[in-house]
Amino acid sequence: MTRLRRAGLAPEDGPHAVAAAGPGGLRLVALDGEAYALGLRPGELLGRVRARIGVPLHVHPADPEAEMQALHRLCRWAMRYAPVVAPFGPAETCHGLYLDTEGAAHLFGGEAALLDDLAGRLARARIPARLALADTPGAAYAVARFGKGKSPEKPAHTRDLILRRRHPGGGLEGGLQNTPRSLKPSPGAADAAPQDEDVWWESPSAALEPSMIVPPGEHAAHLATLPVEALRLEADAAAGLRRLGLRRVADVEALPRAGLARRFGLAPLLRLDQAHGRRPEPLSPLAETRTFSGVRGFLDPIGRQGDVVAAARSLMEEIAPRLERAGLGACALRLTLHRVDGTPRTLEIGLSRPERSPERIASLVRLRLERLGAGLDAGFGFETVGLTVTSAETMDARQAELGGAGTGERVAGLADILAQRIGRRLVRLAPQESHLPERAEGVVPWVAPPLPYPRSLPARPLVLFAQGEAAHDVFAAAPDGPPHRFRWRAREYRVARAEGPERIAPEWWRGGGAPRDYYRIECEIGRRLWLYRDGPHGPERPAAWFVHGMFP
């Protein structure tokens, strides 16, 4: 729901919910505060919910891919606090993330200050969240999700941000200064939200709550009072434990391990040991976006074009092996030149096909510098040269030809040379996914692989108007036949020959419209035109005629 609100996709007043297909039909998977206050809960059938409540419920379709992308964006943003950030998996319902704060908390003035800063930024970004810090990921998750006596049922839209300390060898790494021996809210987190009317929260329970810090070594005492759902068990296992009267983590911990394993399998024991730190739980951090770049600094600044080209070639020689290992080729590069006075100069190099040849890139840089000439303005020289691949695509291995480059490579090379000479990316015409003549072809960058043209396409005019030009005073012997006489551009034309009709139906996905009947006609004066009748002729609606193009 937070993603929908922030994207402006749920602006109406009233309760909102997200539904997805499940057993028995559509079921609720996420709710906002108003829907939660009505007694709705995730997992309920949508049909029963509509019949039970008396107010309109705005239902949005679930989009797991968009949700995962939003969570990954949040994880990348959270890397400002710690290098290891891992999104929740299915066991945590994919509604939060872990941060490993080992060696990072002191950069923000301590653990409490880190949590305060994180809570404040989330509040200003209108992202409701519950934050907790503990020795293990399992303990931090349990405290954030179910701590402070919170019910196991929680609005599904609230993000959990779990921070854990790492304690190699069983010992804690450092500690919290002047921390009471109890669950301690960080001092300023409750006041981190801005006090203006522009900040909203989806429900009172989702409002910014004090960040929870479990003092080092005390996670076992706090886990004991939490419900069994805090162990990240499957729903059936948690329900089975509750049927036996085991409602708290302490109740499960007190059972004989052999009997517990025979009845419920190894999952409860694994989760219990992970929460207490008896078994390791390695995080699966979000993979960073691969970047292919290089930087070269010079003690003596350079200013000649040849030196810049040599630096670009050397940097590409470093980048090319990495591209090859990834199976990629550069489609666009950025050459950054930093002058001695700190002024940067950036040159964009575009290619028609994936490339990783240092000589090829150096030749294109040379052409661009020759075109700039004195406009490069090196000043007192460049002390740093950087080369970054800004766009890359899959590049298959190509067999070199004995007779030199193939036709495709020669055409691509010519396109790249012309692009550097004129200083602009080349474009070309390519077919589009439309059968209407005015939308069937468009301009695309030269690097984009075009769709193949249909092989059985009827003859099309050499000159196609962007929109049909109206033809007036059309006379046709038959209502649905070709015209015999018409007036266009203030001149009257008489038809000598006509071919057609060719019927082109409207695009149903774009709304209404009438089918068009196209005719290729030759006038008595020798002009050949492409006319079409917009819809059938009727007594109440005379057919409209348009000229759409001219043949040679």
Percentage of β-strand residues = 25-35%
Large-scale geometry: flat
Q: What value does the average pLDDT take?
A: 81
Class from helix and strand fractions: alpha+beta
The order of strands across the largest sheet is: 4-5-7-6-9-8
State the helical fraction: 25-40%
Q: What is the count of structural domains?
A: 4
Rounded radius of gyration (Å): 34 Å
Count of β-strands: 21
Report the uncertain regions. 149-156, 167-208
How far apart are the first and last residues' alpha carbons, in Å?
Answer: 58 Å
Major β-sheet, in short? 6 strands, mixed
Write the layout of secondary structure elements.
Layout: H1 2-6, E1 16-22, E2 25-31, H2 33-37, H3 46-52, E3 58-61, H4 64-78, E4 84-87, E5 96-100, H5 111-124, E6 129-134, H6 137-146, E7 159-164, E8 184-185, E9 212-213, H7 219-224, H8 235-243, H9 249-253, H10 257-264, H11 267-276, E10 293-302, H12 305-326, E11 328-339, E12 344-355, H13 358-372, E13 382-394, H14 407-422, E14 427-431, E15 441-445, E16 463-476, E17 483-488, E18 491-504, E19 516-523, E20 528-534, E21 544-550
Parallel strand pairs: 1-3, 5-7, 6-7, 6-9
Antiparallel strand pairs: 1-2, 4-5, 8-9, 10-13, 11-12, 11-13, 14-15, 16-17, 16-21, 17-18, 18-19, 19-20, 20-21
Concise structural overview:
This protein has 552 residues and is of the alpha+beta class.
